[in-house]
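Homework help board

Subject: predicted structure for assignment chain

Our instructor gave us this sequence and asked us to write out the predicted structure in C-alpha cell form, then describe one feature. I got the C-alpha cells but I'm not sure how to describe them. Can anyone check?
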Amino acid sequence: MNHLKIIFLGIFTLFISSSSFGQNKPDIKIYTTQDRSVILYLLPNSKFGYTSFNGVSPNTFKDRTNKGIKPTPARYEVNEYGSGDYSLNNNKLKLNFTLSDQPIDSISKIISNTSYSKDSLEIKMIIKPYFSAKYLDSDLGIGTKVTSTDNSILLMTDFENYGEFKIAKSQLPLNLMINKNYELTIDTNSDQIIEIFVNPFKTRGTDKPKDKVLDFNSLTDITLE
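My C-alpha cell output:
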C-alpha cells in the first residue's frame, strides 16, 4: 500500500463527522492506541473514522510539548486512513472499513415562507464538517463545488462553511450536482437553507485498510484533550 505523505507546519487537525446530524452536537468519542500512533473516532450510528501514522503522530507531538520538549515543525506520514462501521462485543472493537464514492453523509432542508409576489428564491447552503469534539461550531468548511445541470449555478465554497445564490422560480425544478457525484433537486417554491453534512474521512485516504479488531480496554479516551 502506498503511504500518504502529508507535511504540516504547526498543528495537525483531523476532521470528523457522523452519518446523521440534528441541530444538537453529535456524541463523538476520540481514542488512541497505547503507542499513540492511531487516532480513532467513534461516531453516532456505529460509524467510525480511523487514521494511523508512521513515526510521529499528532499525539506523540503533543506529548513532547507537554513534557517541555521544544517541538520542531511536525511532519506526519499517514499510514492508513478510512471509515466504516464498528461493533463492540466483550470489549473487542471490530472495525469494518468501507469505501464510498462521495463524502456527503446526509442533506437536510429548512424551508422558509416566501411571498408569492417574489420572482426568485434565495438558497443558502451550509457545509457542516465536524473536525474536533471541542470545535463543533467552527466556521471552517471543506471546499465544496455546486453546479446545476442547466449551467446557471456555479458555487465554490473553498474553506468557507456556506454559500448563497438566487434562482428564478421559473427554473424549478432545478437539479444540482454537489462535488460532481451527489444529486440534489430544488423543487420547493420557497426560500430555503440546505445543510450538507460532510464526512471528511471519506474525502481522501489510502487503499481500503484491512478490517481490524482492537482491545477496547487498551484504548485511551482523548476526546477532551
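Reply (TA_rk): Your C-alpha cells look well-formed. For the description, you could write something like this. Residues 61 and 72 are 9 Å apart (CA to CA). That's the kind of observation they're looking for.
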